[in-house]
Amino acid sequence: MRYLLMIAGEEPTEEQQIAGCGGWTDDLLARGMLVGGGGLHPPATATTVRVRGGDVLLSDGPFAETKEQIGGFVMIDCADLDEAVEIASRHPAAAYGTIEVRPMLG
Questions:
Q1: How far is CA 34 from CA 5, 24, 38, 67, in A?
Q2: Is 36 in contact with 75 (CB distance < 8 Å)?
Q3: Most CB atoms within 10 A, among 2, 9, 37, 95?
Q4: What is the pTM of this model?
């Protein structure tokens, strides 16, 4: 089953950025579990799109007004939710941010 891991937190420190995933990604690649993923530019570069009454409304920045923003995502293929949670718990960002684990449709 495929799961999307949404990695969120406040702006990472320079040390956290340099450390990156610390081998976490390499392990998933070796195990054949990594489907895709990537990091995102800072929230200030976001554009939010909404359609209301047929009008396309754009706003700069993220939709959510919160300190924690999604900084990256990973799609994994694993046996079940327990395995997905175990994988998410080993991501370095879990120590200073949050990782939402969500099953994919289809």
A1: 11, 10, 11, 28
A2: yes
A3: 9
A4: 0.80
Distance CA 42, CA 49 (A): 17
- Could you tell me where the DSSP H helices lie in 22-105? 24-30, 81-89
Residue 97: closest CA among 31, 44, 23, 39: 39
CA distance 95 to 19: 13
Query: From start to end of 29-97, where are the E strands?
Result: 34-39, 47-52, 55-60, 69-77
Q: Which long-range contacts (CB under 8 A, 24 or more apart) does 64-67 make?
A: 67/10
Q: Which residue has the tokens 């406040």?
A: 10
Give the model's pLDDT for residue 70. Answer: 85
Do you know the residue count of the chain? 106
All residue ranges of the chain with pLDDT < 70 are: 18-20, 62-66
Q: What's the rounded Cα separation, in Å, for the pair 81 and 10? A: 26
